[in-house]
Amino acid sequence: MPIHKKAIRSTGWKTDFLIGFPDGLFLLFFTTLLVQALQLSVQRFYDLNLWVSLAGTVLVMVTAWKANRGDAQHDEATLSPKEEKKLQRLDITEDTIRHIAQEMEADAGRWEQALQQENVQMTTWHPLRALRSAVVAGGSFLLGALIPFWPYLANENFNAAARLSSLLVFLSATVFALIKSRATGQRTWPVIARYLLLTAGIWLAVYLVRQAIS
């Protein structure tokens, strides 16, 4: 992808936080509750969840980097010669191919106009900006992951730790939903309700799995 190509990219640390934090929060909430049912040693429990946290962080950072870099194939507003040749091999007529190209250009124009009306910022690719986005997203993931994991690190009585962890996750989901609703301009209560239902759904799913294998 050419570095001068403009596209929608991360709009700053708030966007990266909103992406990374809930992934870490809910993933470790799920794994810490589920791994308890496997009756592993304390050290094995810690190791497994630590590796999940690190792997998730790397995955989020790579995803954020790639999202900022963009995809030249999908960023093109016009029909490329390579795509045109593919259509020709499908025995599509020249008139149809020209019509497709015209529609692509028209869609690109409408999309650009919509972005201007919504004041969406279009920025060029820059490796330092992408690196910052990846680091913030990865750090936000780790922060979210620490919330459900910390009670287990502080207390090897995993039943008590699970109760505290669940309480912290429900509180964190509520606070995060409030922050997200303010940042995105959405109505507060529907966002809070959605995240609380998601948290409850994770807890219920793990509970049913543990009942099935116990």
Automatic annotation (TrEMBL):
GO molecular function: manganese ion transmembrane transporter activity
GO cellular component annotations of the record: endomembrane system
Subcellular localization(s) per the UniProt record: Endomembrane system
Membrane-crossing residue ranges in chain numbering: 21-42, 48-65, 134-154, 160-179, 191-209
Domain of life: Bacteria
Broad class of the protein's primary localization: membrane
Keywords: Membrane, Transmembrane, Transmembrane helix
Listed InterPro entries: Ccc1_fam
Pfam families (alphabetical): VIT1
Protein name stated in the entry: VIT family protein
A Gene Ontology biological process term: intracellular manganese ion homeostasis
Phylogenetic lineage: Bacteria, Pseudomonadati, Bacteroidota, Chitinophagia, Chitinophagales
Membrane topology listed for this record: Multi-pass membrane protein
